[in-house]
Design a protein that fits this description.
Strand order of the largest sheet: 6-5-4-8-7
Order of helices and strands: EEHHHEEEEHEE
Structural class: alpha/beta
Shape: elongated
Strand content: 25-35%
Number of helices: 4
Number of strands: 8
Helix content: 25-40%
Radius of gyration: 20 Å
Length: about 160
């Protein structure tokens, strides 16, 4: 799915197309919509006390930031295949871990860059402490990573399967 190293992000063709479609929408129809909102709010009068105008301008700023992020991401993207279903943890895999080896205390997440974050599954970056700890491990392996407070945590890799979206 994705693997970032030296500003290169590896994407499947499907992921690349999805992000390209989002960029095209934000650069075209979404820009027109937000410009219309701003124009309508501007016609309401005094801009200092016009909440609709300020909200629309803030929305425009967020939208333009996303356009810049997507543009940069896609400029540096390399399209490749999804990872092999070999049980090795790598970007693009759905990973199930057990904390401290306790198979009653588990978590399943997608190891991928944040562009894939969705409500469907929690996403951890390969550069995050947990992502760094589990990356390259196999099902059955133990992995250690550093918590924000500086302490170490142990997890056991229960499974790693390619993300199917």
């Amino acid at each position: 799915m994705t693997q970032t190293s030296d500003n290169v992000t590896w994407l499947t063709q499907e992921a690349y197309n999805k992000l390209k479609d989002e960029l095209e929408y934000l650069s075209g129809p979404a820009r027109t919509e937000i410009a219309a909102k701003i124009a309508a709010a501007r016609e309401e009068g005094d801009l200092r006390e016009n909440g609709g105008y300020h909200a629309a301008k803030e929305e425009q700023g967020k939208q333009e930031l996303r356009v810049r992020q997507l543009t940069q991401l896609l400029q540096h993207a390399k399209v490749g295949e999804a990872p092999a279903d070999d049980g090795v943890v790598e970007p693009g895999m759905v990973v199930t871990i057990a904390f401290d080896g306790d198979e009653d205390d588990t978590m399943t997440f997608l190891l991928a860059s944040r562009e894939y974050a969705s409500g469907d599954i929690e996403t951890y970056s390969p550069q995050s402490p947990l992502g760094t700890g589990v990356n390259g491990k196999k099902a059955g392996d133990d992995a250690e990573y550093e918590l924000p407070n500086g302490k170490k945590a142990m997890v056991k890799i229960l499974s790693a399967k390619p993300y199917t979206g």
